Amino acid sequence: MDGLNPRKVFSLLFIIGIAVVFTLQFGPGSTGFGASGPATTAPGSVATVNGKEIPLRDFATAWARQMNQLRAQGSPIPESVARQFGMHNQVLDRLVNTELLAQAAEQRGITPSDEELRKLIHQNTDFHAKEGGFDFARYQQVLRDFYRKTPQEFEGELRRQLAAQKMIEVVRSNAAVSEDEVRARYEKDGNQAKVVFARFLPTMYADKVAAPTAAQLAEWKKAHEKEIKDYFEANKFVYQQPERIRARQVLVKLPPEATAEQKAEALKKAEALKKELDGGKDFAAVARESSEDPGSKARGGDLGWVERGSWEPALANAAFSLKAGEVTPPVETKFGVHLVKVEEKQAAQDKKLEDVQDEIATTLFKQDRAKEQAKTEAQKALADAQAGKALKDLFPPEKEQPALLRFETETRPEAVQTDSFTAEGEAVPHLGPAPALAKAAFAASAPQVLGEVFPVGEGFVVAQVVERQKPDAAGFDQKKDALRTQAEQAKQIEVTDSFLKALKKNGNVVTNTEAIDSVVGAG
User: Fold this and answer.
1) pTM
2) What residues contact 88, with CB distance under 8 A and at least 6 apart?
């Protein structure tokens, strides 16, 4: 699916995952740390879709699932930051899209069979007995104690998820492509280039820029009042933060239906681990050896920065009362028994623009000067390349490693050679969106240095085409089947995206921001 719009790829991921919204990722067997949905249905709803409510409980569950997935993937960002990036809107949008599709399926008489429903329920490991396989008694127990739903409620909601998936499949079945479309794709895919480029970033020159003098700072502030204000508004989450700690944890898990005996055993294990820590054993080592939280175990229990509201009150109160370097006694939550080490603390911040404008002005001043320096160095490199010097010789990499890893630690310009890419999109491999550079590369008929410095992101890029290939009509028959499959996949995403847009345009979707704020906090 080369050249597909990232937004459309996201739509496809939504389509693939829609049938398992309620069952496969957030049951008692899931692992998570921190916030979760309320145990019982809260009053109100987060949205109504053509008169059908989306309960607050469903949004809270989906939001908690999103946060837990980020933690499990090694990205334990605070919920306030997730909101800053609009993640709560993405969660709500998925629920709204699912409801719209379910309603569209109902209007068209599209319903899942009882066998399809049974199969999906039986696949859910939350409902499996310890020996393996679906167990009806456990199914009833988990629905009652964890999902807080009756079998009729759960199966009704799951049936709607399946109906929405079937609606998507019907829409996708209409995504036919013509021979002309396949040939056009071949013409695009056969038009290929390979380039070598070097990036010149302001960060590479920041340490060479001196801080402004008092007179320079005063003059810069006066001339850039809007930029300073815009920077402050865009980064308010940095200057206005709740109290938070950087923490590690060791977790001894407990099942949702843990008995008093199981709780006592978990507490005993946690107390033994606490003695090891009190004896001087490294916390990260203990976490790697003994923690039962898969999301943080491999990182030595590292949870990143955590806000008080992300945890249950008992655990938050215990951890936030400590000094940096101290470890809590064992604390029980619904996830298990925790030991938390506080590595760093940050007090709550509520800074105003006038408190930080000098700091912001200094930062922007230095960024501006560093950017000028980056552009100057790029122009020098272009002159050298046009004089016959290869970028690989001018800027050899310090060591061989994948380009993406190199960029994470890049401190100076380094020559990077791309794989072959096509003229279909505006992105350059290992560089990202660079429409002007891509256009210039495909305007070249043979290998050559591209005759300008290209602004890309915050920096500047110099590039040379090292390979150039144009479509070979004789190869069309060999690639036709594969190209047809790619074209059909792209068309399926397009028609699905259009169908969802039409449902929203012709429907009536009303959101309840107060209810959303009650789950994710007010922005």
Assistant:
1) 0.45
2) 63, 82, 516, 519, 520
